């Protein structure tokens, strides 16, 4: 039932997530489209604005050039009428000096307009003639030849030439006015397009926002209902968990009592077997002595079967029985040890893992010297609050196994490292020993199961004990290894063991 409700909520959350992501994607695409359109419209608007501004500059240049021509002609006539007035001559020379620069600027501003360039060529031709005549008139007046100056002025048809120049300027002005009207229209279209794009993007974003808001409101309503259902479900689950926990605790206690009782019940007949084995061994010794005397005093009375039975078969059988009983005794002791560990109350306390590993290393100093093994702690081990005895037993077992199952061709090197991982910590014990076949990675954690060549003493309970202790501490233990490449055991524990984890 809980799984069905959880799946329902997960599906709802996944669907609302996909819908919101879709709306966000649409909004994002709309923003990108609006940005691209706005950038394009802005570029067009800037281009059109630059064109309009250029047109105004051309009109100002036309007006300035025309003014300078008119000013030059007016000041020349004034100088002819009043040759003794220096102001006319000064104004004439200023206009004459400024006119070439103004005409050059006008040519530069209209270089991209073939029609205007044609007008510029006509204008420059007329200006060259006009400037030459004006210069001739001023020189004659300055030389005192007033009659010749006036006669040539009347003959040069300056009025007709000025009308032609004005006609050129009027043509150029009309051309720029047409360009200005066209560019103003383009600029207006760009502005309208810009506002249209903004309006469409705004409407699209508004639609997306409204749709997303409606979905969120609906999801919030569904979520509120789901939370109410979850609260009701949690209330019922809490009662179920309490009952199941109590059942598990009773079952665990019963299993521990059963293991303890079975171990004691097995030990009783085992003690009898071991006792009778000792009696058999004593009787076998007496029987061998009897066979030896018979063989010395009456060898004909002793058969070969009797001699073999007394000297070989019976001692060998007793040896087998003693070996089996000793192994059985070790297994029973292991079961009792596991049973006692299951009943022991855990006592969490702050642990200094560096000091703990140092203590283990000191306790193994003699064995480390014999095997040439080294134990190294890489970096500072993380702090942890847990049961000291259990953690020490786990690390001791892992380090002792690393020294015990060493590679025959290299010295033992054991590296201990660790670090925090969220609200948990990890500790790794890595060695360069013989390694463990990947097919046996789970098998080695089973009770009474071992891997590889059985050339070392042991009953196959160490790693089973380690995993049981790790589970009791609220942790896990995993293995990475390959044959001939060493083994790495990774222990994961809560950084702080809670009451729930101690249960």
TrEMBL record:
It is an enzyme of class 2 (transferase). GO terms for biological process: osmosensory signaling via phosphorelay pathway. Pfam families: CHASE3, HATPase_c. Keywords: Coiled coil, Kinase, Membrane, Phosphoprotein, Transferase, Transmembrane, Transmembrane helix. The keyword Lipid biosynthesis does not apply. InterPro entries: BphY/WalK/GraS-like, CHASE3, HATPase_C_sf, HATPase_dom, His_kinase_dom, HisK_dim/P_dom, HisK_dim/P_sf, Sig_transdc_His_kin-like_C. Residues 261-497 form the Histidine kinase domain. It catalyses: ATP + protein L-histidine = ADP + protein N-phospho-L-histidine. The keyword Ribonucleoprotein does not apply. Its EC number is 2.7.13.3. One of its GO terms (molecular function) is protein kinase activator activity. The chain crosses the membrane at residues 20-41, 193-217. Residues 216-243 form a coiled coil. This is histidine kinase. The gene is cph1_2.
């Amino acid at each position: 039932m809980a799984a069905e409700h959880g799946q329902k909520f997960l599906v709802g959350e996944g669907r609302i997530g996909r819908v919101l992501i879709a709306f966000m994607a649409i909004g994002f695409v709309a923003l990108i489209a609006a940005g691209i359109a706005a950038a394009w419209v802005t570029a067009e608007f800037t281009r059109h604005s630059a064109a309009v501004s250029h047109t105004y500059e051309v009109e100002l240049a036309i007006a300035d050039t025309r003014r300078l021509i008119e000013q030059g002609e007016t000041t020349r006539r004034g100088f002819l009428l009043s040759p003794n007035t220096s102001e006319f001559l000064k104004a004439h020379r200023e206009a004459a000096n400024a006119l070439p620069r103004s005409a050059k600027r006008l040519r530069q501003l209209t270089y991209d307009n073939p029609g205007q360039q044609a007008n510029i060529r006509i204008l420059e031709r007329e200006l060259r003639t006009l400037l030459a005549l004006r210069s001739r008139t001023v020189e004659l007046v300055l030389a005192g030849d007033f009659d010749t100056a006036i006669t040539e002025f009347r003959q040069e048809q300056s009025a007709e030439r000025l009308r032609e120049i004005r006609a050129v300027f009027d043509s150029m002005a009309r051309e720029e006015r047409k360009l200005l009207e066209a560019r103003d229209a383009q600029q207006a279209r760009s502005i309208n397009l810009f506002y249209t794009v903004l309006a469409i993007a705004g409407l699209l974003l508004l639609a997306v926002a409204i749709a997303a808001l409606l979905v969120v409101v609906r999801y919030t309503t569904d979520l509120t209902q789901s939370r109410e259902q979850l609260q009701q479900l949690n209330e019922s689950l809490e009662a179920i968990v309490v009952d199941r926990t109590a059942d598990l605790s009773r079952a665990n206690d019963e299993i521990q009592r059963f293991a303890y009782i079975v171990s004691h019940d097995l030990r009783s007949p085992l003690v009898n077997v071991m006792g009778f084995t000792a009696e058999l061994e004593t009787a076998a010794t007496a029987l061998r002595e009897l066979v030896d005397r018979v063989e010395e005093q009456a060898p004909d009375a002793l058969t070969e079967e009797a001699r073999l039975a007394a000297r070989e078969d019976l001692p060998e059988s007793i040896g087998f029985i003693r070996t089996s009983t000793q192994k059985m005794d070790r297994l029973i002791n292991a079961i009792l040890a596991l049973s006692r560990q299951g009943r022991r109350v855990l006592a969490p306390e702050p642990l200094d893992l560096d000091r703990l590993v140092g203590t283990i290393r000191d306790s193994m100093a003699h064995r480390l010297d014999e095997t040439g093994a080294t134990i190294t702690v890489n970096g500072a081990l993380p702090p942890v609050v847990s049961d000291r005895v259990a953690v020490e037993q786990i690390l001791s077992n892992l380090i002792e196994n690393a020294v015990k199952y060493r590679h025959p061709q290299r010295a033992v090197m054991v590296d201990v490292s660790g670090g925090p991982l969220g609200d948990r910590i990890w500790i790794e014990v890595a060695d360069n020993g013989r390694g463990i076949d990947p097919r046996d990675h789970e098998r080695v954690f089973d009770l009474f199961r071992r891997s590889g060549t059985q050339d070392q003493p042991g009953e196959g309970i160490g790693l089973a004990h380690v995993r049981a202790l790790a589970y009791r501490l609220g942790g896990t233990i995993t293995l990475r290894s390959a044959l001939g490449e060493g083994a790495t055991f990774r222990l994961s524990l809560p950084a702080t063991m809670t009451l729930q984890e101690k249960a």
